[in-house]
Amino acid sequence: MVSYIVKRLLSLIPVLVGISLITFLILRLTPGDPAEAYLRLSQIPPTEAAVAAVRAELGLDRPLPVQYGEWLVKALTLDFGRSYATHRPVWDEMMLLVPATAQLAGVSLLITLLISIPMGIFSALYKDGWFDNFCRLLAFTSASTPNFWLGFLLMYFFSLKLDLLPTLGRGSWEHFILPAVTLSFAYIATYIRLLRTSMLENLDQQFVLYARARGLKESWVIGRHVLKNAMLPVVTALGMSIGHLLSGSVIVESVFAWPGIGRFCVSAILNRDYPVVQCFVLMMSFIFVIANLLVDIAYAWLDPRIRLKEES
Amino acid sequence: MAATKKQSNKFRQFAALVVSLILLVSLAAGCGSQTNKETSKEKVLNFSWAKDVGPLNPHLYSPNELFAQAMVYEPLVQYTGDGKIIPWLAESWTVSPDGKEYIFKLRKDVKFSDGTVFNAAAVKKNFDAVLANGKRHDWLAFVRQIKETQVIDDSTFKLVLKDAYYPVLQDLALIRPIRFLAPSQFPESGNTAEGIKQPVGTGPWMLSEYKQGEVAVFVRNPHYWGTKPNVDKLVVKIIPDSESRVVAFEKGELNLIYGKGNISIDAFKQLQASGKYETKLSGPLATRALAVNSNKGATKELKVRQAIQHAVNKEAFIKGVLFGTEHKADTLLAANFPYCNLGLQPYEYSEAKAKSLLAEAGWQEVPGKEFREKDGQVLEVEFCFPSTDAIQKSLAEVLQGDLKKIGMKVKLTAEEPGAIFQRQKDGNFNLISNDTWGAPSDPHSLVGSMREPAHADYQAQLGLPMKAEIDRKASAVLVSTDEAKRQELYREILTTLHEQAVYLPLSYLTNIAVYSKNITGVTFMGSQYEIPFDKMELQ
């Protein structure tokens, strides 16, 4: 197991280098000059001399392999350069913003699990009952509700009309409720349906019949036998969701003025802020890969039939 | 049977969970409303901005936000809305007859917000820091013109230029890069391009609290020489989304929305119609205009360009798209700008006139066809605009509809801003959005930039037979020391551009303000980027 994890971690290196190289090249291929974008951002007309000065200042006038090589060497020491837009070290910016996003993602994930797991279980146990139908309706609604619209709706009712919750920003834990609920909404329905299907499949299995035949308590059968197996697809989805929650929270962050990484990176893309985009992509790739690894480990734990192939 | 019982137990547990969650939320809500209703005797003005105010370095650009820089730092002279320059940190000034030397007498009662004295040495130190980073300020001709800075005595500062350059005072009134940081806050190296210690200026406000990307709090500068602000605290909340800003305002978490583009025009109209708030509109601050390329395709012809001027129903556009929040523009620069009150004859809206101009140019209607043709070619122009701008998108549709009426086909090209800038530089457009600079930079910056190939202005004018003449006059006007001659040169340049129809002015951009009824003293400044918070009063 340990050597498997070590191997997987080592295989991360070429993956991340590859991703960074592809990101680097794609960024250079997109139209738009970062030096010019910077000047426009500053409301400075981009005269040739000004563009040249900024290009030299940002090191964009050097050959591409040199630029990439230098970036890579520095990146190894977590020095991702300075943001073109804010002039602060990219890593510092990330460390300032990532916790906000991570907290939001964490709370959303918690809400998702707290709501979807019981609901998924009951949906399956009372298949085709009113509760199951309600969950189905919820799934349809959530799949077709845009994030930003739901965000505004919640903000409008709970904050403006009912005056129950703060509208925007970050401070106390009440600030988490609206953005986290908005963010979890889409996931909740997915998880309910996923767990329901998986539960139903497992309930039909022979081992369930056998467990019941042995006279085990129903809660024991559901909890220890069915649920544990039924959680496998949920764990997979969870692995992907962590990455998505961290990288895709931009709309929710904008709507609720949440000072997180999502909106910082979107403006970085628009501003051609290469160092920020490169660092962000690398960081997210890292999180995705690690989440995948954790999923694999969780699999082995949940289902002993799945053995991590140490020799592979 | 047993199973069903177990299941119903489960259900009860689940119901309990749901109830506890609801309770949790209500509890949270309870706490929330308590904190919201916290009262304080302090007069706090809550404002919001889409971006973080930045490190507030007076000598640098993005991510420093202009309005915040203007709160902390002051200029030597101030630009008023009617095109005049008034004394500010400089009480008076004299200009040598050759226009190359400026001597400024500084106010003696000025202190920085940390209590240190503002004097000629501080002025020189700031000027020198700007000059040391000269390349970055290359866009500003004034900085390129500075030859020398001298301290004559404690309250006298002298500026020596390489050549005469008349808009010195206008450029000194700009929010950046020439405003004054306390010498105590310079970095060890003296190079402010590397950063500053703390944002300490002579302005009415000082930064008291700052959380990057969340909030910036400003309080009164206790040493301020002028009238101190009425409110005790100004809280700038960073809210990137304009609709969220409106909700926060309606909820009372903000008392003021100010500036162009901070909320949608729909929202402005809705807030205005509610009758619950005060709204205000500034005078013309810049011009929303399109550059019409005299060097490409159908718009090479003067009559086609003139036909476009007559065909566009600006009033309908302002009413329908801008909900009347901007004023109609007949000329490229509004008459309230210096040298711009020229009494030029507007191109009146007339479909018939536009049609006859096209016919004169040889573009004839073809029976059974929608668009005019000449030598088998369809009359088509391309309008390029940034896809991210909602107003430009609506404008594109208006333009397309109006020009279709006179038999002109408009190809709409929406691209991301970077690509549009590229087109402005290489002249690959017939029509392109090209707003003017605004006060206090116009008209001199606009006229100056006409000589730069990287500007849409240059590209659009390239097909004019008198382009070289325009450039020559533009260069002459900037160095002329004779007021009457300058007026004459501006008259010639602006009249030619008007007659040649290389710009389609649509409306004059305005700043908007929406505020709660307990605020008074909301006014507008000459520059669109400055917000006079210090004049506002909270009841």
From TrEMBL, chain A:
The chain crosses the membrane at residues 9-29, 104-125, 137-156, 176-195, 230-252, 280-302. Keywords: Cell membrane, Ion transport, Membrane, Nickel, Nickel transport, Transmembrane, Transmembrane helix, Transport. It is a multi-pass membrane protein. It is found in: Cell membrane. The keyword NAD does not apply. The keyword Ion transport applies. Belongs to the binding-protein-dependent transport system permease family. OppBC subfamily. This is Nickel import system permease protein NikB. It comes from Sporomusa sphaeroides DSM 2875.
From TrEMBL, chain B:
It is a lipid-anchor. It is found in: Cell membrane. Residues 1-28 form the signal peptide. It comes from the Bacteria. It holds the Pfam family SBP_bac_5. Keywords: Signal. InterPro entries: CntA-like, Peptide/Ni-bd, SBP_5, SBP_5_CS, SBP_5_dom. Residues 84-453 form the Solute-binding protein family domain. The keyword Signal applies. The keyword Signal applies. Belongs to the bacterial solute-binding protein 5 family. NCBIfam families: nickel_nikA (TIGR02294). PANTHER family: NICKEL-BINDING PERIPLASMIC PROTEIN, PERIPLASMIC BINDING COMPONENT OF ABC TRANSPORTER. This is Nickel-binding periplasmic protein. The lineage of its organism: Bacteria, Bacillati, Bacillota, Negativicutes, Selenomonadales.
